[in-house]
Specification:
alpha+beta, 11 strands, two-stranded antiparallel ribbon, 17% helix, endopeptidase fold (from Nostoc punctiforme), 36% strand
Length: 158
């Protein structure tokens, strides 16, 4: 297990891609929208609420889903990231932008559920500047499921 985690973290460190957007630094929301096909707009922290009634939402990771992060003092607009692979019930691989540095796209970044109830409400995410999972847990709402994917029809009216 430790070898797999080390390999994933090593791969994640190699897949950082600096990208300049036309309006400056590429943000997480436009990137997640492009990758997932989920058509939500505005600050990432508002995506969970916007998804109600439009997209399925839940606490189970699925490939193609968007993990929606809550706003915090250090992450005032929240964050969104797309799930590219589910490793097990507590670990996924994310693709996202602007997490480890301005305008950086990360492909194959490990995220680990560290919530006490195993419900993905707190995660630690690979952070390139330190080369491992971040030191603090980030609060999340859960996963937003795109149309046509497993779980897309759950919790539409919650």
């Amino acid at each position: 297990m430790a070898r797999i985690s080390a390999l994933v973290l090593t791969v994640a460190a190699m897949v950082l891609t600096p990208v300049a957007s036309q309006a400056g630094v590429l943000q997480c929301a436009p990137y997640a929208r492009q990758v997932s096909g989920i058509q939500l707009f505005g600050a990432a922290a508002t995506w969970w609420g916007q998804a109600a009634g439009q997209y399925g939402r839940g606490q189970t990771p699925r490939v193609g889903a968007v993990l929606a992060f809550r706003a915090t003092g250090s992450m005032r607009s929240g964050h969104v990231a797309t799930v590219s692979k589910v490793l097990d019930d507590r670990r996924v691989i994310l693709n996202h932008a602007n997490w480890s540095g301005p305008g950086m796209i990360e492909r194959s970044a490990m995220a680990e559920d560290v919530s006490p109830n195993g419900d993905w409400t707190q995660v630690r995410v690979y952070y390139a500047p330190i080369g491992k999972l971040g030191l603090r847990a980030s609060p999340t709402y859960g996963f937003i499921y795109g149309h046509g994917m497993p779980g897309a029809d759950i919790a539409l009216n919650d």
